[in-house]
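Note to self: user wants both folds in one dump. Writing first protein now.
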Amino acid sequence: MKILKIAFIALLVSPMLFTVSSCKDDTVEPTPKDTTPVIVNTITNRFTIGFDQYDLVLDENSSYGYYRNADGLTVISIVGTSTAVSGTPIVSGRGEVEIKIATTKEGSFSQANGDDLEIEIATGEGIRRKEYSFDQNSNMKLNITKYDSVGGFIQGTFSAVLKDGINSRDVKKGEFKVERSKDQ
């Protein structure tokens, strides 16, 4: 019986030991919202040939821009790999773009305006490799929106009609941003 009384008293006292008390003046601070800015990469290295879109993750060792003193051309090389996204026109594979332009400044350039402009593209690898080249009648446009000093970036957009053998292929929605290397 004594054990029963002790157990009963312990049962009555135990809720008092675990009770949390608060005052009306206590304010509960809300959990702070995460205000860390989300960085969205709005410019990618990409292009579309026909219905195939290439969004390239760059090979940093093969992607660059530099000014070539010997012939007065800026050379922009974009090399990377695209990964297919289901339900979109983005395809998997390697993509390479080489742009040559006689400038060291920002601006809009066009072969139709007599600008010294060349754009060449290659996709795929091995036996699946396709090369698209310009000719003197190609319709090529280049817009350089950023041309920093060495260590900065060369950035812009491009479009072209390039040759695939005897066929012409539309290249559109071309975008690039590469680090500017030292002049050569």
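First done. Writing the second protein, which came from a different request thread.
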Amino acid sequence: MATFTNLYNTYAEHPVQYNSEQIQEMLSPYIEQFDIKIENNAITIGEEYKPLNTIKINRICAIVEEPQYIYIVLCGCIYILNKTSGKVEINIRD
């Protein structure tokens, strides 16, 4: 598991500007597992009506995949998708 400090420091700025097609390609193996929807330049993970479930694509600094986790890195938080358990957690930057 990557350390959050390393992820925040490595991706402090927007090194890549993703578009919907790139996000779709990167996350396509996990769309069903995490109930991911990509539309209107946003990613929704799980139920749409929950406030933290939608991420604007232009706010994403990086998507980092490891064997057990997918990290969606934003400037102020990291969404952690656990491939094994299917759980989603959010780490909020100090």
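Dump finished. Worth passing along: Residues 65 and 91 are 16 Å apart (CA to CA).
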